[in-house]
Amino acid sequence: MTPVLEVDGLSFAYPDGHQALFGVDLHVHAGERVALLGPNGAGKTTLVLHLNGILSAESGDGAGSVSVSGLAMHKKNLLEIRRRVGIVFQDPDDQLFMGSVRADVGFGPANLGIKGAALERRVMDALEQVGMADFADRPPHHLSFGQRRRVAVATVLAMEPEILVLDEPSSNLDPASRRELADILRGLDVTVLMVTHDLPYALELCPRSVVLSAGRVVADGRTYDVLTDDALMSAHRLVLPWGFDPRSVPIDSLPR
């Protein structure tokens, strides 16, 4: 089966000479939920920004290739790739800028030329998926932080992406909002790549984890195996929260 996301030999240096990625390979198949782990400065954000063409070899000194469902990352394919790969940034206020939730969620599809009843269906379907349909006419700045994050997810879902990329989805959420978002993400019929420092969240939601460190993939396997590899964790500055031991989590409760 052809991966929905193929990253092959991706290297990238910024114009100032900083080398952020060194020959990264990453293949993700449709329906997978994969956590991208690593310390600060590992290159995770640089990698993510290559997945829908925000960064490319042309914007720095780079090599390698990225393709989405067989579409190579070229200028002629950028619009379609950006529809297929939706990125939800860490701060929802980076994505919410209209006067109402409905307008924010409809902004992307409207720019694709979708109008009228078809646009309304897109908007409400996306809001239903994140449990925010009753807030369609609220100004986003009147919502709680957790609600704004769910609306930010809806703005991407309205584009009907194949891949949902989440940057630190659990950060700054209270425990109830964290749980609500986990339940939403489990129920989505979309491939998920989740960048996170929240290792228990990765274990709960993502059967597979990829560890990026100093611009290189240093591990790729079952999240449980990664988090219980003490030597790997120590070598790459991955620290579990105090009191959390993955070995205490029943294996049959982990995602498959």
Automatic annotation (TrEMBL):
It holds the Pfam family ABC_tran. SUPFAM superfamilies: P-loop containing nucleoside triphosphate hydrolases. SMART domains: AAA (SM00382). It comes from the Bacteria. It is found in: Cell membrane. InterPro entries: AAA+_ATPase, ABC_transporter-like_ATP-bd, ABC_transporter-like_CS, ABC_transpr_CbiO/EcfA_su, Co_trans_ATP-bd, ECF_ABC_transporter_ATP-bd, P-loop_NTPase. The keyword Transport applies. One of its GO terms (cellular component) is ATP-binding cassette (ABC) transporter complex. One of its GO terms (molecular function) is ATPase-coupled transmembrane transporter activity. Keywords: ATP-binding, Cell membrane, Membrane, Nucleotide-binding, Translocase, Transport. GO terms for biological process: cobalt ion transport. Residues 5-239 form the ABC transporter domain. It is a peripheral membrane protein. Part of an ABC transporter complex. Responsible for energy coupling to the transport system. Belongs to the ABC transporter superfamily. This is ABC transporter ATP-binding protein. It comes from Nocardioides faecalis.
